[in-house]
Amino acid sequence: MKRISAEHATCTLSKNHPSVARAVSGETIVFQTLDCYGNQIRSEAIDFTGIQGDFNNPATGPLFVEGAMPGDILKISVLDIQVADQGVMVVRPGAGALGDVFQSSRVKILPVKDGHAVFNDHLRIPLNPMIGVIGVAPLQETPTTVPHVHGGNMDCKRIVKGATLYLPVFVEGALLSIGDLHGVMADGEVVICAMEMEGEVTVKVKVIKERKLPMPLVMAADDFMVIASKETLDEAAHTVTHAMHGFLVHEVGMDTHEAGMLLSLLGELKICQIVDPLMTTRMELPLAILESYGYRLP
Ligand code: CA
Ligand code: CA
User: How far is ligand 1, taken at its centre, from the CA of residue 209, in Å?
Assistant: First the structure.
């Protein structure tokens, strides 16, 4: 199985980055990833002046997928996520939704014990490893901190082992990169970091041609969901709702009024994160709905 080392980590997604590995459609690849601080924080007593602040949120890649052309879909099956034996969090004045209340910075190392993050003497939290950054090269070079239609820093907690992600292909080879693993994260990610971890992600990539899907699209457990990132939560909520409705009407074949009613009944509108440069929402629906209409995701 091919492995891409974390030496190949960049802080932008770009069609100009030379690919560091090639895969055929259907191949399985392992991405070794750094944590969002570039593995630079190893102690709670760290002196921030020694940190390379511009090496922020690195993603490993890009992987060139043979046969992927603009207009195609890249299907990424997350076969496994392995994380290290400790994670790190940092809160800082001015950063995130609580930046106004913190007067000083604080670093916290969270050791892993028996599948749990040791938060402090009172609390242990079950790990639920997820991928923060997973994206293809967009047409314009984009920092790995930014989520958008190419994927990127979506911080969607449903992108876990067993999930499948569909992304639009903008450039030949798709140029897939992955990074920013979290051992635990809640919807919102309110202090801009989760339990940040280095690790390894095993994915199977497949090129899908001549299909229309609202993207980014995720299939996880018994749900499928559309993701949208916009400048405000209002815009992101509006966009993701319209994307899901359009899919139900134009691809699945539902009546327009019934599709709207169904989204009010079963469409779970959720917040992925409110701290990256754009806000990310998702709308979740049970996969059983697609089965009832005889529709299958590719
Ligand atoms: Ca992130
Ligand atoms: Ca992160």
Answer: 29
For helices 256-266 and 233-247, the axis angle rounded to 10 degrees is 130
CA of 146 to the centre of ligand 2 (A): 12
Please check whether residue 215 is in contact with residue 221, taking contact to mean a CB–CB distance below 8 angstroms.
Answer: no
Tell me the torsion sign for CA atoms 284, 31, 116, 275. negative
What is the CA(182)–ligand 2 centre distance, in A? Answer: 6
Q: How far apart are CA 51 and CA 107, in angstroms?
A: 13
Report CA(281)–ligand 1 centroid distance (Å): 14
The domain over range 217-292 is classified in CATH as 3.10.28.20: yes
Neighbours of ion ligand 1 (CB under 5 A): 132, 153, 155, 180
pTM (global) more than 0.90: yes
Residues of the chain with pLDDT under 50: none
Nearest residue to 158 via CA among 197, 194, 131: 131
Res 68: pLDDT: 98
Q: What is the pLDDT of residue 46?
A: 84
The answer to whether the Cα torsion of 249, 231, 179, 9 is positive or negative is positive
**Element housing 87 (H / E):** strand 86-91
Residue 190: CB atoms within 10 A of its CB come to: 17
What is residue 52's predicted lDDT score, i.e. its pLDDT?
76
Q: Which has the closest alpha carbon to 196: 120, 272, 80, 107? A: 107
Per-residue DSSP letters for 188-238? B-TTS--SEE-EEEEEEEEEE-S----SSEEEETTEEEEEEEESSHHHHHH
